[in-house]
């Protein structure tokens, strides 16, 4: 008598071949990349120290002082930088023929995307934790619950850019993908109200850019949507921005991964 195997939950969700062992292996590989880790951790911290901790701010924005406000912005940038650059490393895997090997296994494109996103999200927590420690030491101040809420929302929102990194890596299929993604993120940070507070028309335009929603959502527990210039950002605008760009980037990541591996 033949017994039919019961599909596992990941398989039922379309994640055929999903493996936590693969995630652990990939995470160890990422953490061994000292250059990438230093860039991901040091750059946002230096930006915070220069533009936040070293400045003699005395005002508050919502429930936080200005140092905490700047800290959250730079922590969000660091988390996004981590998720994007680590996910973009798929380009190197394609060059080495690793993704072609994976296509010969049971691992589906959706499971691969989820696994890479999980690794990127694990690494994204590091700059958030580091900036929180540095912020607490250098005078950033906000209620514990508010501070925690901002950090968690920034971490969750950075997942959107894991898909962006996958799309960049699969589309460009070269080491230049990681360099290009860094340049694109810098532009998006300026356009998305991350590096420099925007107002008026510039603030309105920024609401349609990819990084705006994640940054605004992370800052909401601290500021309630208020900006240093007295403008107000609706919570629903931030959520809509994140949802729309998440769908766009996830679709692009799956498309470019399938196209890239099919041509190998």
TrEMBL record:
Topology of this chain in the membrane: Multi-pass membrane protein
Main location: membrane
Transmembrane segments: 36-54, 74-92, 113-138, 144-168, 180-198, 233-257
Positions of the ABC-2 type transporter transmembrane domain: 23-198
Alphabetized Pfam families for the sequence: ABC2_membrane (PF01061)
Keywords: Membrane, Transmembrane, Transmembrane helix
Record-linked InterPro entries: ABC2_TM (IPR013525), Nod_factor_ABC_transporter (IPR051784)
Annotated compartments: Membrane
Protein name (record): ABC-2 type transport system permease protein
């Amino acid at each position: 008598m033949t017994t039919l195997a019961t599909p596992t939950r990941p398989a039922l969700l379309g994640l055929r071949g999903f493996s936590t062992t693969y995630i652990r292996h990939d995470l160890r590989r990422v953490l061994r990349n000292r250059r990438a880790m230093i860039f991901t951790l040091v750059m946002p911290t230096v930006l915070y120290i220069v533009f936040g901790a070293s400045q003699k701010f005395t005002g508050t924005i919502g429930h936080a002082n200005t140092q905490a406000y700047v800290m959250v912005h730079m922590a969000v940038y660091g988390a996004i930088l981590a998720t994007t650059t680590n996910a973009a490393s798929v380009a190197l895997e394609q060059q080495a023929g690793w993704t072609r090997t994976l296509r010969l296994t049971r691992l589906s494109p959706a499971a691969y995307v989820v696994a890479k996103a999980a690794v990127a999200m694990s690494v994204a927590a590091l700059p958030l934790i580091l900036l929180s420690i540095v912020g607490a030491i250098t005078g950033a101040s906000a209620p514990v619950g508010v501070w925690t809420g901002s950090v968690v929302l920034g971490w969750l929102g950075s997942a959107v850019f894991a898909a962006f990194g996958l799309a960049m890596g699969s589309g460009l299929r070269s080491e230049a993908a990681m360099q290009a993604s860094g340049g694109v993120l810098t532009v998006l940070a300026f356009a998305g109200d991350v590096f420099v507070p925007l107002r008026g028309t510039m603030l309105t335009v920024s609401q349609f850019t990819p990084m705006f929603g994640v940054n605004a959502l992370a800052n909401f527990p601290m500021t309630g949507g208020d900006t240093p210039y007295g403008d107000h950002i609706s919570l629903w605008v931030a959520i809509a921005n994140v949802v729309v760009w998440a769908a766009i980037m996830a679709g692009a990541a799956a498309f470019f991964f399938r196209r890239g591996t099919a041509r190998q």
